[in-house]
Amino acid sequence: MKLDPFFTFLLGIVVTWSVYHFFYIKDRVADRQKTFAAYPRTYDVVSASALIAGACLVIQSVGRRLLQSLAEKMLPRDRWAHQVFALKQRRFSEMAFKSIYFLSLTFAAFFYLHSESWWPKLLGGRGDESELFKDYPNQESHPFTHIYFYISAGYHVACFISLLLSPKLPDFYETLLPCVCAMLLIFFSYQGNFLRVGSIILFCHDFCDIFSCGCKVFVDTRHKVVTFFLFACLVVSWGYLRLFAFPVAALFPIFKNVKSMKATADGEDWGFFVCLLLTLFVMNIYWFGLMLKMCMHFCTSGQMSDLHSPTVSEEEPSVVERRRSPRMAQASSSKSDSKKRH
Predict the structure, then answer these.
(1) 178: Cβ–Cβ under 8 A, 6 or more apart, which residues?
(2) Most buried residue among 29, 162, 263, 278 by CB atoms closer than 10 A?
(3) Gap between the Cα atoms of 101 and 83, Å rounded
(4) pLDDT in tens, 6-48
(5) Where are the domains of the chain?
(6) How far, in Å, CA of 65 to CA of 67, rounded?
């Protein structure tokens, strides 16, 4: 079933509501920035994300060239035509870069934040849920939460630019929707000083992407055992972090504290944040269903395939034509022989 109209509809709602939300809270945010010295500055996240996005695009481009030789060694060249092999090389390099990015960022996030009073026990911390919104909106957070937001914002902006510049694939809108939701959530969460709960949400999603990108690195190689191991890690981490820890450690506390926060921050449009978070959660459920479908495909066929890969012919048109030409020549010769007999 084609879900593009549904994803496009959700994307339209998200973008329209975001424009409204920006003008709805901008005066209140400006007042808080003047009143509270520790309140996050909008300029910081905008400027930092722009610089980091540019750096990500440059590093990814350089990394693609550096990893080209490794991709040539690991990918079976005789399996695809030249054009398809080039696409596989490109994806191999991009996914390798993203795997390293998510591994480094989640390690740093856990290292700096796991001992904070608000970091949840579900994620290896000792924190308490009541600390998430303590003293809000005049709330000071660990300095790394700001860095975490800057890097994440820049990365998602870079992904957004790459997505728009790349050829439009069948999964374009289902990839674009969570990318846009992530960018908007990061920006407005920083602007609203939701650094603590925002860091938890980022960690739950970034950790799973280590294995998601890792699977895409090895899926086209001959290392099927490594691919299956990473896929198993992906399913387990996705189920625990995105479908369990994300709602329990972030969504439910937000729902519980909305009333108390409204008393001190009545200028917030809480429905907007709930809408974005629920959209993200629904997409997590949808992707988990796709992963189970991939698992069933592997059990029945013994082959691991990426359901998000574009539908590309495995051979160049010229190859197909060359294979058809002997048959066509034979058919034409038989026709001419029959005509001569008559």
Answers:
(1) 279, 280, 283
(2) 29
(3) 28
(4) 888 889 999 999 999 999 888 889 999 999 988 999 999 999 9
(5) 4-305
(6) 5
